[in-house]
Amino acid sequence: MTNLPIVCALTPAALKARREGALTDLLRRAQAHDELPQGHRLRFGATDDILATIAQAIDAERQCCRFLRFSI
CA separation (Å) from 43 to 17, 32, 35, 60? Predict the structure, then answer.
C-alpha cells in the first residue's frame, strides 16, 4: 500500500462538489486545524453526530484517493 499512485479518481466536477460539500462541512466543524509536516490535524468537539460525519468523509476520500491516510 505504500506504493499507491498519488492520483484522485474524481472528475473535476465531482472534485468541486466534494470540496464544496462534505469536506468543507467537516473543516467548518473542526474546533482546531493544525498543519503538520506530513499532513493536517483536525480536532472536533464531542457532539452526537461528529463521529459519523468524520467516518463519512473518510469513507468518501478513501474511495477516490487511496493514497491518503487517516487516524482517529
Answer: 24, 5, 12, 19
Q: Read off the amino acid at residue 64.
A: C
Query: pLDDT, tens digit, for every residue of 16-57?
Result: 776 666 777 888 899 999 999 988 899 999 999 999 989 988
Burial track 28-63 (b if 16+ CB lie within 10 A, e otherwise): eebeeeeeeeeeeeeeeeeeeeeeeebeebeeebee
What pLDDT is stored for residue 62 in this prediction? 78
Phi, psi of 41 (to 5 degrees): -125, 125
Distance CA 7, CA 43 (A): 27
